[in-house]
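Please think about what follows:
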Amino acid sequence: MQVIKQIEEWAINKGLDNPDFAEKQWLKVIEEIGEVAACLTKNKTEELKLELGDVGVTLIILNMQTLSHKLHTPDPDTLSTIEAIEGILSCVSTSGLGVNTAWMYLDDLCTSLNLTLEECLETAYTKIANRTGTVIDGNFVKD
């Protein structure tokens, strides 16, 4: 997916690829998963695509900070929404182990909601592409 390269370039340009920031990035993944859960509980389907994309963005950056392996998206399996969210949470750790598996769960979650991971990432990238700010203690702080 071209959008993954765009997100990686954005993260590098912002200085977010620093391995020292992995613990903060892990917390950012959890924060974004919480926003997905909030959309689901409040039936905010219009915002869901963006929030799923934000989870993807945070996983891409965490992957850059830890494993530096290329993420791959397998053929989708059918999981319930809750199983997919549980899968993402159970896979992501501060050491970055399981980021690829979390990525697969995210793809499954998008599929179960009749979305594609690529369209969710593109929505999130469109939101952040021209964002300015500064990295402070591993957190990107918007201007």
In short: Residues 63 and 70 are 8 Å apart (CA to CA). Residues 2-142 form one domain. The helical segments are 2-14, 22-41, 45-65, 81-91, 99-112, 117-128.
